[in-house]
Amino acid sequence: MSWIYLLIVGIFEVVWATTKKLSNGFSVLSYSLATLVGIAISFGSLVLATKNLSLSIAYPIWTGIGAVGDIIVGVVLFHDQFSAVTWIFVAMLVVSIIGIKMTTGH
Fold first, then answer.
1. Could you tell me if 15 and 34 are in contact, meaning their C-beta atoms sit under 8 angstroms apart?
2. Taking the mean position of all CA atoms in its chain, how far away is CA 101?
3. From first to last of its 106 residues, what are the pLDDT tens digits of the chain?
4. Where does the sequence pass through the membrane (predicted)?
5. What is the CA radius of gyration of the chain?
């Protein structure tokens, strides 16, 4: 169950980072509220995930999911552009996240 919480943490990391940008400096109320809800769910799920997972495993997975998710949202929603070399490093990050999961005893 801790890994499911960790996945939720990562997803809501992307949600709150995206809605924070869409809030235009917290000047759009709906996105501002969505940001706060996303932060609460993300951190609340992190608390639940770290009940059974060590912080040294949970934190890199959380930030990795958030980083990759934010890159994808940036490309799809905000039309960010990256070089092919950058995408190689994003792929390496995904492989690293999977590797951490596969090599832990949890």
1. yes
2. 15
3. 899 999 999 999 999 999 999 999 999 999 999 999 999 999 999 999 999 999 889 999 999 999 999 999 999 999 999 999 999 999 999 999 999 889 987 6
4. 27-50, 57-78, 84-103
5. 15
